[in-house]
Specification:
The structure is a homodimer. The first copy, chain A, has 11 helices and no strands. The first copy, chain A, is an all-alpha fold and about 210 residues long. The first copy, chain A, folds into 2 domains: about 70 residues, Arc Repressor Mutant, subunit A (Orthogonal Bundle), CATH 1.10.10; about 120 residues, Orthogonal Bundle (Tetracycline Repressor, domain 2), CATH 1.10.357. The longest helix of chain A is centred in the last third of the chain and has 23 residues. The N and C termini of chain A lie far apart (about 60 Å). The N terminus of chain A is likely disordered. Chains A and B meet through α8, α9, α10 and α11 of A and α8, α9, α10 and α11 of B.
């Protein structure tokens, strides 16, 4: 996708009588994507439909944003492509998934990209951003990937990944937003030791009510 | 405190040459309390100091707000006195503390007071309210009470209750703010079964790193 820079999109734009400038095309794609993702969610939105709405060739969308996931990350203004972190989910043994999730995610939060992520989450929690976009991102992008990994497609699986999400949001708020000590300055390895088993139990352990 | 309505405060106000109206005195107490709690935190602020700042008798503070805790709840605009819920912490067996915390707190969130609490938390997370007040409330009012119950005054105890706080904030966000299904509409008893053991492990279980 790094070859043929802009050519497809520019040609097509000429043929259809529209020729937005570079930044104009990028902005048009983002605007179209925001509307589509917000209306239909992540899964049911195609790059082709977004390109049509924006009046550009799909190749130009890929040129600017890489994958649909990258485009989505740009729409919700995430400073990192979540795919880099999410790839870990597919590559580690199932019984080590919990500790790997907390380790990978805290590494991103503690990185230079952290403040940008905190700003996005803050804005979502405050209700400034579209809550449908936030829900789509959490449910269809992040948690869906985890759910596929634990391979339980039923309500039980959805509950498991939602519980994981709840603990991760809580760690973000405690460590980065309210800055509750000692969680704010705790070494990442301590956090992994404390929270990893929680996530692992939510993913693969017993979470139901005891038989009475 | 429900007897002698206003008499102490009114008399003193007359003697000191100041006589704010009923609502004026209440507002003056709230303003003084907000400043003091924000500057010095919950523990180091006395009702007497707030009363002096507001130019009223301490008895009037108690008359309007009950305990210092009730006054604090009014300052952070909590629609319920947290003491009602916090009392549960002192009364249940230590090994059942985790499930009782999630049960009691979710009951309040799901009650008619819930939307008011969600509004307060949203405002804090968005950074509209004073973060020092939020931190004070969480650290000195809620978590301190739990920490005393598990009776570990060291850093370990502070980490334990902060972890409990992180999971509770996460459940609130997932269930009430972003409304991630199935957590948003999950029966409270399912939530207790899933999250109770997490809290219990944070409070009394092994949360450190395995010896290598």
């Amino acid at each position: 996708m790094t070859t043929g820079k802009g050519s497809d999109g520019a040609d097509r734009a000429t043929r259809t009588g529209r020729r937005p400038g570079q930044s104009g095309a990028r902005a048009a794609i983002l605007a179209a994507a925001r509307t589509r993702f917000s209306d239909a969610g992540f899964d049911k939105t195609s790059v082709r439909a977004i390109a049509t709405d924006a009046g550009v060739d799909p190749a130009l969308v890929h040129h600017y944003f890489g994958t649909k996931q990258g485009l989505f990350a740009a729409v919700v203004k995430l400073p990192v492509d979540p795919d880099t972190t999410l790839r870990i989910i597919d590559s580690v043994p199932l019984e080590e998934l919990g500790e790997n999730i907390i380790r990978a995610v805290v590494a991103v939060w503690d990185s230079p990209a952290g403040p940008g992520i905190v700003a996005v989450v803050r804005s979502i929690l405050a209700g400034n951003d579209d809550p449908a976009l936030a829900r789509t991102f959490i449910l269809e992008v992040v948690l869906e990937r985890v759910r596929q990994r634990i391979a339980t497609a039923d309500d039980d699986g959805r509950a498991r990944v939602a519980l994981v999400g709840s603990q991760m949001i809580g760690v973000l708020v405690a460590r980065k937003i309210i800055a509750v000590e000692p969680m704010a300055s705790m070494p990442a390895s301590d956090l992994v030791a404390a929270v990893g088993p929680t996530l692992q139990r939510y993913l693969t352990g017993g979470i139901g009510q005891k038989p009475s």
